[in-house]
Amino acid sequence: MPRPNPAQLAYGSATVILSALAMLLVSQARSGAGIAVIASAALALGLLVAVRVPVRRSSGASRPAAGTVPAQRGAQSADGGRRLAETSSRR
């Protein structure tokens, strides 16, 4: 499982704190069970927000537009459309 980035941690933590505060103020829960339910709901909401934060890619290459094929992968030879042999830079 990949590690969360700082934006995911910040948004998730802020969501947990603010949603728990808002739910506690609105519901005026006084019992331990009510507070536990609110805390659980706030944690679940914070997790959902943290997972849904878009992850920024560190590479400078842009993603290809929908419906297009990158030149390296779509390379074909003029004789019958067979793929050209590709060499690996890893050894």
List the helices and strands and how they pair.
Elements: H1 6-27, H2 32-52
Q: Would you mind describing this structure in some detail?
A:
This protein has 91 residues and is mainly α. The protein has two helices and no strands. Helix 1 runs antiparallel to helix 2. It is rod-shaped. The relative contact order is 0.13.
Question: Which characteristics define this entry?
Answer:
mainly alpha; 91 residues; single chain; rod-shaped
Oligomer: single chain
The percentage helix is 40-55%
Rg value: 24 Å
Number of strands: 0
Unreliable stretches (pLDDT < 50, length at least 5) are: none
SSE order: HH
Give the structural class: mainly alpha
Distance between the termini: 27 Å
Strand content: under 5%
Quick recap of the structure?
The chain has 91 residues and is mainly alpha-helical. The chain has helices at 6-27, 32-52. The model has no long low-confidence stretch (mean pLDDT 78).
